[in-house]
Amino acid sequence: MRGATYARRAAGALALALAATACGGGGGGGGERAVLTSSWGDPQNPLEPANTNEVQGGKVLDMIFRGLKKYDPRSGEAVNMLAASIDTKDSQNFTVRINPGWTFSNGEKVTARSFVDAWNYGASLRNNQKNAYFFGYIDGYDKVHPGSGAQTADTLSGLKVVDDHTFTVRLSQKFSGFPDTLGYAAFAPLPRAFFTDHAAWVKRPVGNGPYAIESYIKGAQMSLKTWDRYPGPDKAQNGGVTLQVYTDNNTAYTDLMAGNLDLVDDIPAAQLKNVRTDLGDRYLNTPAGIIQTLEFPYYDPAWKKKGSEKVRKGLSMAINRKQITDMIFRGTRTPATDWTSPVLGVDGGYKKGLCGAGCDYDPAEARKLVKEGGGIPGGQVKLTYNADMGSHKEWIDAVCNSINNALGNDKACVGNPVGTFADFRNQISQHKMAGPFRAGWQMDYPLIQNFLQPMYFTNASSNDGKWSDRDFDKLVDQANAETDQAQSVRTFQKAEEVVRDDMAAIPLWYQNGSAGYSQRLSHVTLNPFSVPVYNEIKVS
Hints:
Elements lengths: L14 E2 L18 E6 L14 H10 L4 E3 L6 E3 L2 E6 L4 E6 L13 H12 L17 H4 L14 E5 L2 E5 L21 H5 L1 H6 L7 E7 L3 E6 L13 E6 L3 H9 L5 E2 L10 H5 L3 E13 L12 H10 L3 H9 L3 E3 L9 H4 L14 H10 L8 E6 L5 H16 L5 E6 L2 H9 L7 E6 L5 H9 L13 H12 L3 H18 L2 E13 L3 E2 L15 E2 L1
Parallel strand pairs: 2-11, 15-16
Antiparallel strand pairs: 1-9, 3-4, 5-6, 6-8, 7-8, 9-10, 10-11, 12-18, 13-17, 13-18, 14-18, 19-20
Helix pairs in contact: 8-11, 11-12, 14-15, 14-16, 15-16
């Protein structure tokens, strides 16, 4: 899932009035329990589960939806939530049985059809959902979402409703990790209201999670109240959450210190030198499944020509990761030596040092490689980033200074800020990047597959630079088909070596989750995705 940022805008932004219980009949309320306030940023798109692939929208989906699986907030393990069982004999044909008793916040029952209809909608080409690719292994995807031309089917042939609590899934090939992907929000169920009056649902989202959206004022805040009739085991321990929109997380931190905000879930770099003194044990700094990279626009022939891999490797070797993480991030980042995350563990696919010399700081070799590769396209690297988050400019400038010093050219690299995260993402989506750009990946689920396939597989959902390699694609398909987990991981690592050999993206550092909270709160933790476990937070 793509990283995001905060944004605070003028109070005159458009208000979207939502029903107090997110479409009535849901019994919102939250009783006498207090509501907490937390920093946030406007999502890029309306909150459709299959159309949200960035962190800020994802936070809300995680609060208002529950799927077949849920990722344990401590271990990250995929555990059954709505699923009573997901059975298979061949890793290609699955029978899914859902637990009875689940409803949406409007009172409608969650059934097998709620999942099948949602997945068919998400996969359909005509619905233009950003996460459509996640349904790509289900049989019939090539008909509902062809690579070119019009779709020739309305539904996935691999999905069949058996009864109210059972459906089957047939994949186009074996994928042993498929059940563990089903905690991702794209696979959430949807109520009939989503389909019968879609425009109204977008304005008044209805889910089946422990919270219901009460109101949203774009550029200002979103109010979520506890849904008291939520049938799940992870009920909210507070009365609700008000997500306040910020343009600068330094401002959010100032509001926290002034008592005007309860929770900041990304401590700005400028405050790291003071945060332990300011907050004591109310400061959290925990490992998370996040990696920061620099990606390249392969739709620009200058970055795709023969020899350009040497330029990319040279730029990587011109970046002094240790110095930047020590001086700017103060223990919240660790220099990356592969393209995954230590959170996966060795058995899960993390392989320290897989990047090899390409991630070492070596100015002499960097100059040599850039020269051998034909030099930097256009003579200058412009690192594009969104400027509406306090910490990006500082590290972008540090990366450019490192590159300039290593290459002996003070104009070799400059930062290229874009005003807001939404504008930044829109330019990326429209393939308007003129050079390398900031990229952050927060895992959707704790599998090595999720760090590689969405980012680098040909035409994958988050392959923003449009890198493509047949050998990589072939190895990923082989890894997914493996029924032995250890062999699957080894095959994925071979695919990762293809990424390394072409330096498809420059790995920068692994990112910890960080947060600070007020004295009103207790039981505050971050999950392995670096997101606060909102439902466990208590407010005094």
